[in-house]
Amino acid sequence: MNALDSLIEALKRLPGVGQKSAQRMAYHLLQHDRPAVHRLADALTAAVERIHHCERCHTFSETSLCSVCADATRDARLLCVVETPADQAALERTGSYRGYYFVLLGRLSPLDGVSTRQIGAAELLQRAAESGVEEVILATSFTAEGEATAHVLAEALRARGVRSTRLARGVPVGSELEFVDLGTIAHALSDRR
Amino acid sequence: MNALDSLIEALKRLPGVGQKSAQRMAYHLLQHDRPAVHRLADALTAAVERIHHCERCHTFSETSLCSVCADATRDARLLCVVETPADQAALERTGSYRGYYFVLLGRLSPLDGVSTRQIGAAELLQRAAESGVEEVILATSFTAEGEATAHVLAEALRARGVRSTRLARGVPVGSELEFVDLGTIAHALSDRR
Ligand SMILES: [Zn+2]
Ligand SMILES: [Zn+2]
């Protein structure tokens, strides 16, 4: 395979990139932005060499403990369980959570072979059992798989005497009720404060 | 900047990739497809090192003459002018053209500072003046800039006594007339055979 076709094939491994956009990307880089090619190649190599997982919360980290886990000023009573580092980043951006995290790096999906072992459930239970943890907030997504994951984890935590909560389901801020789906409205009603 | 943010920034240089998709790509690669990261880094480096421009037609090529220019069995009477290697690839895929090419690597765009020099107009005129060339097919796009480019090149070719033609404008194969824009229908009428 020639260098151009190899590049197009490699770009197609990026999520959401098909043959046409991979081709457009390759042509654009070669024609208009060769410095970006070097930068991207270096960034990819550096990322895969330097980014590992925090040994405590499993999020991406260049150090053995991530910056959140290493921050002793956070609220040790709260442990928030999310599916991905992206979800964690979203929660951090809200600025309204000061506890620690545990990142599952997935969600239970028996059909795809994702079991409690893959999401680190045992490590989570161990982490949640540490003295000081008073509440585990299950912030998995509100999809069928995310809900099933939260359910399984809540049961396991309850069996060990650890209290867990779930994020409130409700109407997104800024939405007009008219355009919100009925299931969300129903949940917003039942979770009303 | 940490390795993750550097990677996200580098991915944002790809055309059509904003902050959100760059983030999704980075997370996906690091979490699910680390082998693809190495492959992409290597493909990028190899591409930028090995892919240059054909010295005769200016398309991407790993050799000083591209495979089309190096093919002596093609029809030397025809020279097709396209804007990009992607356009050339599309024409090649039709299997209905057997002449040679000249790739402008752009189109005239005075506002963006793209002049006749940037698109290699002088080299094109020299190439078109070679003995044996009987017709230059101007296959630039049917946009305002593509049409202007074709117009300027046609004038320059005519001044040198070289015949040029333009691809036929018309109704796309498989379209229902009802859904084709009026300008296209008008052109299809005037270009009717
Ligand atoms: Zn951590
Ligand atoms: Zn060539």
Overview of the molecule:
2 copies of one chain form a homodimer. By secondary structure, chain A is of the alpha/beta class. In chain A, 43% of the residues lie in helices and 12% in strands. The first copy, chain A, has 7 helices and 6 strands; from the N terminus they run αααβββαβαβαβα. In chain A, the strands form 2 sheets. The first copy, chain A, has a 4-stranded parallel sheet. In chain A, helix 6 links the parallel strand 5 and strand 6. The model of chain A has no long low-confidence stretch (mean pLDDT 90). At the A-B interface, helix 1, helix 2, helix 3 and helix 4 of A face helix 1, helix 2, helix 3 and helix 4 of B. The complex binds zinc ion (ZN) (2 copies). One zinc ion (ZN) binds next to loops of chain B. One zinc ion binds next to loops of chain A.
Q: Uncertain regions of chain A: pLDDT < 50 for 5+ in a row?
A: none
In one word, what is the shape of chain A?
globular
Q: Which pair of chains has the greatest number of interface residues, and how are they split between the two chains?
A: A-B, 46 and 46 residues
Bin the strand percentage of chain A. 5-15%
The strands making up the biggest β-sheet of chain A line up spatially as 4-3-5-6
- Roughly what percent helix of chain A? 40-55%
Q: What kind of oligomer do you see?
A: homodimer
Secondary-structure class of chain A: alpha/beta
End-to-end distance of chain A: 61 Å
What is the tally of beta strands of chain A? 6
Mean pLDDT of chain A: 90
